[in-house]
């Protein structure tokens, strides 16, 4: 009876970690969407608010870290639960750095919004959506223990990489054609690179999830 | 007696983790130095070897991760030791990604070495040295529990950021002056950005070390 109570409590604590991680993931998705919106709609006020919002992501990182340490210390979990908690510790770091990337994108948007638009943003929003989906799916794969979904995330990373390369090539052409474009084009390249890094973080999470599920490390074997 | 034996064994295991982390750090430092050398001395063969060497960093990441999980499962450490091990788990991820950055720099070096040099590299080697020192000091701070050293690393990050901005400004001037420079300048900017990210990883490690020592989170309060 005592044992059952203990086990129920423990499950509750694991669920709390799971829920907090999903909450953090949800907030990060909103940040990605708002960072892109602040650029596309030239909404500098939204860029400012999104930069300030990063604080909430940072706080959630600390809360989840502490919760994980507390559960490790008090419950001394083994096997699967241990892998789950240590992975949660690594995942929050990736999510926090995605928040940093969003803040960086907003800083570039703030600058770009002060100058005439170089060209309409078409590929960047697509790239942002793809990166955001990857973050969501990587976290879903984690909480559900769904390795097929995690593998899909790793594969999707290539699309984002290709979009990034295509955008960089296009902007290079702009720069070559007119030196007045260079400064703005460089900022847009930084935005594109930021989105690519967000997708990389999602891929890192997915690779770790596959490791957790399969119990062996595919991080450095998947192409 | 039995207890003492257990405790000695446990200390041994913590030392093993410590040593493996320092070994990984040492290899990462070599990678940074070689990445820079392959660029400055236009040594494409060294670039190739350094890219291939990243495999060793990846293997060490897996080895240390597994060791940490094993100690967590078998020893069920508490308090300080628990923080030490969970931090080791996070630090290997940063080290592994520094290895990735070095490989990326080598790929740019490989491309740049095929074209005439745009200009002598003066600031980049300084930046690489600063970033490499930061990695070393962050790890030293971790294994020694030296918060003063960790704080120094966080402060040094600003010098690297400033060097990066200076390099970017200078290359922007090159690009504006001659469109033929743009493609090469962009690659050098990527190298500079890669070094800045390496310094960021070192800073992340240092911030986590301060957290471990002080027991409270300064990650999001240090300017």
TrEMBL record, chains A, B:
One Pfam family cited in the UniProt record for this chain: PhoU
Keywords recorded for this protein, A-Z: Cytoplasm, Phosphate transport, Transport
Residues covered by the PhoU domain: 21-108, 125-209
Record-level GO cellular component terms: cytoplasm
Oligomer and partners: Homodimer.
Location in or out of the cell: Cytoplasm
Taxonomic source organism: Geomonas terrae
Protein name (record): Phosphate-specific transport system accessory protein PhoU
GO biological process, one term: intracellular phosphate ion homeostasis
Gene3D superfamilies on file: Phosphate transport system protein phou homolog 2, domain 2
Coiled-coil boundaries: none
Biological role stated in the UniProt entry: Plays a role in the regulation of phosphate uptake.
Top-level taxon in the UniProt lineage: Bacteria
Family: Belongs to the PhoU family.
